[in-house]
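As promised in the previous annual report, we have extended the structural survey to additional targets. Below is the entry for F-box only protein 25.
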Amino acid sequence: MPFLGQDWRSPGWSWIKTEDGWKRCESCSQKLERENNHCNISHSIILNSEDGEIFNNEEHEYASKKRKKDHFRNDTNTQSFYREKWIYVHKESTKERHGYCTLGEAFNRLDFSSAIQDIRRFNYVVKLLQLIAKSQLTSLSGVAQKNYFNILDKIVQKVLDDHHNPRLIKDLLQDLSSTLCILIRGVGKSVLVGNINIWICRLETILAWQQQLQDLQMTKQVNNGLTLSDLPLHMLNNILYRFSDGWDIITLGQVTPTLYMLSEDRQLWKKLCQYHFAEKQFCRHLILSEKGHIEWKLMYFALQKHYPAKEQYGDTLHFCRHCSILFWKDYHLALLFKDSGHPCTAADPDSCFTPVSPQHFIDLFKF
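The corresponding structure token record, generated without further manual editing, is:
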């Protein structure tokens, strides 16, 4: 008579003892195959070999999903990903708005992590982060704050690796640390999204970044080829005239005595003042030497304290007046595929695009 039993070597299978030996029960086999096709859990009971406890599969699956979800939420290096790299911006506060038009949502959607890898957009993003740090940090949602500090972390690591424009990042961290100190000291008086301990940890991280940048040492590269000092004077002078920041001119002038001589040229600083400021502003802050000559270099830094200098970026965000969309314009795609960077419905899209400065970006979200 056939014997129906459970084999200890194969839990979950029913076996039948016949004259030819042990065989698996076909009805049980078909049932388990159907369960395997229906879900990934093939058994109704999981045995824990360490402590012998029995867990229900549904509870085990729920706990596993919950751990993954909690890990995703707590992962500070995780940034929200969006397929579209543009966002609607509606100035009117109506119930029929499409999508979101908050500063935090725009910061999440516009792919700043990729933008900092582009040297044309790097200074633009840093300036934008600096403006947010000064006045708009509390306007960001919790997710936007996480993205903000993730991008800031990538910027700092990039500067530590390639030594690109550390002075700009130092200014950003200084403004951010000052803002955080004020917010933490005045907790309860201002709206601060998130736990106070998180903000204290962020401030400690910023202080550590500042110390790393302070200890940054520029490695001297050994190059047997042509160097900057080998260039003729007129070419070196032409390079200095391309700079729009006075501090960059001073920094380059410290490289060699020849560059220092060229960086002190009065005509160079005069051109720089004329580029950034108006003639009426010159008269209000006129600085003369003992011989009666205008000290253009001193005037530049004096005017910079009273008036905003003209900003210059390799690439900026653009705003489409026809579609009310804020986006990055990819010039390579525009030339190759006539792709404007967003689904524009205008007959002549280029005529509708307006470059957006970092301050203009902030102003777009002030109602």
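The CA atoms of residues 204 and 277 lie 39 Å apart. Residues 142-162 form the longest helix (21 residues). These points will be discussed at the next consortium meeting with the crystallography subgroup.
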